[in-house]
Amino acid sequence: MAKVPVQFRLNGSDRAAFIDAADNLLMTLRRGLNEFAPKYGCGQGTCGVCTVLIDGEPQLSCLTLAVACEGRHVETASGMAEGPNLHPLQVAFMDNFAAQCGFCTPGMLMAARALLDRNPKPSREEVIEAIAGNICRCTGYEPIINAILAAAGAGDQKRA
Amino acid sequence: MPLDVRVATSMAEAAGILTADQRTKLLSGGTLMMRDVNEGRLLDGTLLRITDPAYRQMNTSGARIELGAGVTMAMVSNNRDLAFLHAAARSIGGPAIRQMATIGGNLFAQTPYGDFAVALLALDAQVMVQSGYGSARSMPLDEFLGARERGVSGLVAGVQFSKPQNAADFRFRKVSRVKPKGIAVMSIAAHLPNTGGRISQARVAYGAMAPTAVRARGVERALEGKALDAASIQAAKAAALEGTRPATDAIASEWYRREVLPVHLGRLLTGEGR
Ligand SMILES: Cc1cc2nc3c(=O)[nH]c(=O)nc-3n(C[C@H](O)[C@H](O)[C@H](O)COP(=O)(O)OP(=O)(O)OC[C@H]3O[C@@H](n4cnc5c(N)ncnc54)[C@H](O)[C@@H]3O)c2cc1C
Ligand code: FES
Ligand code: FES
After folding, report:
1. How much is the pTM?
2. CA-based, 20 to 30 A from B126: which of B50, B116, B160, B205?
């Protein structure tokens, strides 16, 4: 079947690809656009490692039809740093040993960013709720929760 | 022929396409359907997307609430008029799933999924079903769920229900093994309108206790006309299992579901924590 075109913003740049009509966004990012931050974990919506932001909201790219993203803004962990400066969440993840094997990290970072963009001073419970759709097999979650709370605190200090 | 994708710009067009072509399936939020695509269970045919804004419309300010079938769990959770439904919407998946999962899809989700449908059943919701290009007809949700098992065709355009007069009269509880997000061992919703200290028109519904969400008619009868007190709650618990046909799945056995249902029903009715 003929390929169909899709165009959207990816981390601030306009990108286009030719894809099969029913391709999911994850495949389009990884195969069509060489954007490898979101990973293929389960393809079922259960692991969260493919989490991206679409127009600022967290969504699972494995369950999103790529053509439905036409004209929208897709953000991944690759777009978090500004030049050489890591995003405060990335720094906090390093400082708090929140990545061990690192497989879950791109999804965790996007879930955490979605939370902090909307709620800069979350409670511990709100952090736990925000990453409830993201599985980590290494850390036991505590370092990740601490990192997100630390990043929220760091944002505070910056403003002060 | 691989899977194709088609877009309907109006609800009528979508209903017409779905009724005319059995190989076309509506993709709402896609959280269930895209799993089938990814796992190769859905290899050909057409996925239909709806871009009509009416599909995602919410009318929540009046006494009669109307929600388009494309309204997501996140949209429900963010709407203050729907505070009584926040617990049900937030019980579904994690934040990313809730951004995508729609009410329409929840009415088709196989048990043990379908938690939002349980809440809607206790609200006596009407489902607007549109077949072909005609206008939508409304049917009670329990009738719809029965018809679903026999394979209804057409488009679910939305749901309608009366807002509970008092938010405290509506209760929802999902029992799951993993917190804060987990698949239901069961879910229970109850709408217990109270006139002069007595319950009238009690509606109680279960999820994961039968092949579809079901009304707990024995419980409703036990509570009708009574004050919500130790005696009526005891009678409700004694009638809890009437009409249930739970299954054994990866989450819980049929036996376990039956054993714990009266306990969780009791906690819902007394308003106790877990
Ligand atoms: C990780 C994960 C966790 C989940 N957790 C829960 C949970 O806790 N509780 C729960 O209830 N569910 C859960 N689900 C299941 C699912 O996300 C929800 O049930 C959701 O509401 C389904 O809606 P959807 O819009 O994504 O459906 P879709 O996948 O778009 O559609 C599902 C089916 O319904 C049909 N359909 C959808 N809308 C209409 C319509 N308007 N008219 C006619 N047919 C229609 C589709 O054709 C398809 O056959 C989970 C799913 C995942 C992947
Ligand atoms: S790959 Fe998308 S949730 Fe696991
Ligand atoms: S760091 Fe290995 S899965 Fe989370």
Report:
1. 0.96
2. B50
